Amino acid sequence: MVSALITGGTSGIGHAFAREFASRGVDLVLVARDTARLEAVAAELHTVHGVDVEIITADLSERADMERVAERIEDPKRPLDWVVNNAGFGLHSTVLDPDDVDTHAKALNVMCLAVLVLGGAAGRAMRGRGHGHIINVASSSASIFTGNYSAIKAWARTYSTSLAMELQGSGVKVTALLPGWVRTEFHGRAGINASKLPNIVWIDPDKLVRTCLADAERGRIESIPDWKWRAAMVVADHGPRAITRFVSAKLTASRKKH
Asked: Which UniProt keywords apply (predicted)?
């Protein structure tokens, strides 16, 4: 039986991954902080799709919890075919605000250190079996300069490619997911007002996940669902840096606290 572990699997993109995997008959291991929500999502997916759903309550800003999840990933008696490093949260602040230093440090733990620890665990376990898929959820923000969130996601993007290079030829495929604006509760939780954004910039989370899984199965190192975001990433990565800095400055200014 195929199985997948998803961090942050009870909301947003992570929940979309869980629903898609469950619809394909894939057994799940869901990792999140809220036990009650984990239990509710697990019960729903089991009832609707008949898959087995294991839950792990863990706060991935804490090193001990990271290590506990890593041990599950490397358990030889319960091998995993997919590991999705998705857990994260938005940062609606500048890098200059001293009141937010602890929040930025937590973000580094959840979206960098935990990805490093769990990605390494998955890579070792899957390499030993000669197959498996690892998906690291980064962001299109990795190509621009909107505070610490962009820096974190640029790290995740680079790390994911580095992991893919280390595992080349092992049978393990690693894909970085680089979404743009996705219709989830993510932005509301971060305090970002996205109500004025035009419909064209938005991506449906279910379409995003299906495209990402198809890209991962093809062995693509990066998945950028939707043509408009692929075009935007080409401009951000290869266009004049002055344009990228200009756009980044406008976005940063719009997020400053007043």
From this structure: Oxidoreductase
